[in-house]
């Protein structure tokens, strides 16, 4: 439609219907992922945590490098997986609901940055597993993505959820016994980088004068409704809701 300012969004949902569809897919993706993690925990427990010993990240061991993609799905105890499951689902869903395809790329990036940080910097041959690196990566992605994409509601939601899981997030402090703060730090760094890599590319709105005018100076009834809808979408977009 000529005369109306347009905002083109690439890489993410562009309206409420698409956003709801992506949120539905995000829910099922995270539900399926969490179910897989729990099934692995059941098998791991039955094997006396042999999977964690065999597929954990061990610093400096070249043969264990591929395990950085597997280790986030494994845990050392029921308390370990229970503590991770809530924030993993919440932050994972928030990271995925604006685009499942981008979320999969983000997950790979965070797993790599978290695992490589442990592999390069951890000392003492420690065997590291757990989804905490993913959690911190998703958290960083959600908060910073809201700034890059001008979806401030995402930033606010991320901060509120961070407050809800404050105890879990404080475990990134160095020196906490039994906690791989390096994995947390690497995951957070991956999430921040991912927010930049997977950001929406938005051309600036183009305005070509006041729309909806006829040659006689009165409003054109054919464009009045569409113009109002465009104004509404723009207002929702400015609020970070679209």
UniProtKB/TrEMBL annotation:
Q: Which SUPFAM superfamilies match?
A: Rhomboid-like
- All copies of domain Peptidase S54 rhomboid, residue ranges: 68-199
Query: Which UniProt keywords are present, listed alphabetically?
Result: Hydrolase, Membrane, Protease, Transmembrane, Transmembrane helix
Q: Which GO terms describe its biological process?
A: proteolysis
Positions of transmembrane segments:
26-46, 76-96, 103-122, 128-148, 155-173, 179-198
Which top-rank group of organisms is this from?
Bacteria
The Enzyme Commission number assigned here is: 3.4.21.105
GO: which molecular function terms? peptidase activity
Renumbered to this chain, the Basic and acidic residues biased-composition regions fall at 221-242
Region Disordered, residue ranges = 203-242
What is the name of the protein in this document?
Answer: Rhomboid family intramembrane serine protease
Source species of the chain: Streptomyces silvisoli
């Amino acid at each position: 439609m000529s005369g109306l300012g347009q905002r083109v969004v690439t890489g993410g949902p562009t309206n409420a219907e698409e956003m709801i569809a992506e949120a539905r897919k995000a829910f099922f993706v995270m539900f399926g992922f969490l179910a897989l993690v729990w099934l692995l925990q059941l098998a791991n427990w039955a094997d006396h945590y042999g999977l964690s010993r065999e597929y954990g990240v061990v610093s400096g061991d070249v043969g264990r490098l591929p395990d950085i993609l597997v280790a986030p799905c494994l845990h050392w105890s029921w308390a370990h997986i229970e503590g991770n499951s809530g924030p993993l689902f919440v932050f994972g869903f928030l990271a995925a609901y604006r685009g499942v395809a981008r979320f999969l790329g983000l997950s790979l990036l965070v797993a790599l940055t978290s695992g490589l940080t442990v592999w390069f910097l951890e000392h003492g041959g420690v065997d590291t597993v757990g989804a905490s690196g993913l959690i911190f990566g998703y958290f960083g992605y959600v908060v910073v993505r809201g700034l890059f994409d001008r979806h401030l509601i995402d930033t606010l939601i991320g901060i509120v959820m961070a407050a809800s899981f404050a105890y879990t997030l404080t475990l990134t402090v160095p020196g906490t016994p039994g906690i791989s703060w390096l994995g947390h730090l690497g995951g957070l760094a991956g999430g921040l980088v991912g927010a930049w890599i997977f950001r929406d590319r938005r051309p600036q709105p183009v305005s070509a004068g006041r729309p909806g005018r006829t040659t006689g100076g009165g409003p054109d009834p054919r464009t009045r409704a569409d113009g109002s809808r465009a104004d509404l979408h723009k207002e929702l977009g400015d609020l970070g809701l679209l």
